[in-house]
Amino acid sequence: MFGFFSKRNKESKESLDRGISKTKEGLFAKFARALTSRSKVDDDFLDELEEILISADVGVETTLKIIDRIKARALADRYLDTEELQAMLREEIRGLLADAKVKNSAASEESKPYVILVVGVNGVGKTTTIGKLAYLLGQSGKKVYIGAADTFRAAAIDQLAVWAERAGATLIKQQMGADPASVAFDTLNAACANNADVVLVDTAGRLHNKVNLMQELAKIKRAMQKLNPNVPQEILLVLDASTGQNAYEQAKQFLQVTEINALALTKLDGTARGGVAIGISDQLQVPIKYIGIGEGVGDLQPFDKEAFVDSLFA
C-alpha cells in the first residue's frame, strides 16, 4: 500500500465489518453450516465448499485452486477438527490476495504530483469513487486536483463539481464535448503550478468501442507527459462488486485496452458477492487498492487484505 494513509483505526475496522456483512453472511454462514456435521474433509464436503465459493462469485478457477489446496493440506495435515479447516481456508484466501503484486508504476509516490488516471464503465461508481478518494487523500493532508476529462457526459462534470466541493479539492473542467486530453493537460499544469500532491483524472466510461477508448486514453497520457514524462503513476480501474463475475469480465476487457496497475471495488456493502475480490485479485494479478463500503463521502477505504480476511472470518 502506498504511504498516503496511516494504518486503519478502530472506526474504519468497524465500518469494514459492516460493509462486508452481506458477503460474510452469505459465504461464511454457509461455510459454518457445512462444517457442523463434518468430521473429515471428504468429497461431499469439498463439493459443498466449491458450491459455496462459486455462489459468492469467487470464480471457478480460483475456487478450484482453493479446493485443491485445501484437499492437499487436509491429507498432509491429517485434519481432525473444524477449527483447523477454517484456519486453512483463511490462510489460503489471505495467500491469494497477497499473491497480487503491485505492478511497477512510472514513478514513485514522492514524484509530485502523483497522477491517478481513473477508468471504468458508466454506472460502476467511478465519479463517486473519485470524490471519495479526493476526500480520503484530503483527510491525510494531501492537496488534490481533479480533472473532469469525461467530457462525453454533462452529468459527469456536474457530479464531479459537487464531489470536489465536498472533498475540498480543486476541480479543473471545460465545457461538455471538449477534448479530454486538453482537460487532463490543464489539470496537471494547474496542479504543478500550485504544488498539488495528487491529481485525479476522470475518463469517459465507454467500453463498447475499444479502439476509440484505447486511443483516447493514449492521447490523455501523451498530453500529460508533455509536462511530466513519468505520469500517470497509477491507472485505477473502478469495478462494481455487486455485478460479481461481470466485474471480472470488465477488468479483463480493460486490461486489453490499457495497462491497469490498481483496482477499486465499489458497492461491497450492498452485495453478498464480495467474494469476487478474491477471484479478481488471484486471476488478474492486479492489486485491489480501495474498497467502497457505503454511500457517504468517508466510505472509501484503502484495501487491507489482513483486515478483509479477518472481517470475513470474525
UniProtKB/TrEMBL annotation:
Its main location: membrane. Keywords: Cell cycle, Cell division, Cell membrane, Cytoplasm, GTP-binding, Hydrolase, Membrane, Nucleotide-binding, Receptor. Gene3D superfamilies: P-loop containing nucleotide triphosphate hydrolases, Signal recognition particle SRP54, nucleotide-binding domain. The keyword Amino-acid biosynthesis does not apply. One of its GO terms (molecular function) is GTPase activity. It is a peripheral membrane protein. GTP binds at residues 120-127, 202-206, 266-269. Residues 287-300 form the SRP54-type proteins GTP-binding domain. GO terms for cellular component: cytoplasm; plasma membrane. SUPFAM superfamilies: Domain of the SRP/SRP receptor G-proteins, P-loop containing nucleoside triphosphate hydrolases. It is found in: Cell membrane; Cytoplasm. The keyword Cell division applies. It comes from the Bacteria. CDD domains: FtsY. GO terms for biological process: cell division; SRP-dependent cotranslational protein targeting to membrane. PROSITE patterns: SRP54. InterPro entries: AAA+_ATPase, P-loop_NTPase, Signal_recog_particl_SRP54_hlx, SR_rcpt_FtsY, SRP/SRP_N, SRP54_GTPase_dom, SRP54_N_sf. Pfam families: SRP54 (PF00448), SRP54_N (PF02881). It catalyses: GTP + H2O = GDP + phosphate + H(+). Its EC number is 3.6.5.4. Involved in targeting and insertion of nascent membrane proteins into the cytoplasmic membrane. Acts as a receptor for the complex formed by the signal recognition particle (SRP) and the ribosome-nascent chain (RNC). Part of the signal recognition particle protein translocation system, which is composed of SRP and FtsY. Belongs to the GTP-binding SRP family. FtsY subfamily. PANTHER family: SIGNAL RECOGNITION PARTICLE RECEPTOR SUBUNIT ALPHA. This is Signal recognition particle receptor FtsY. It comes from Candidatus [Bacteroides] periocalifornicus. The lineage of its organism: Bacteria, Pseudomonadati, Bacteroidota.
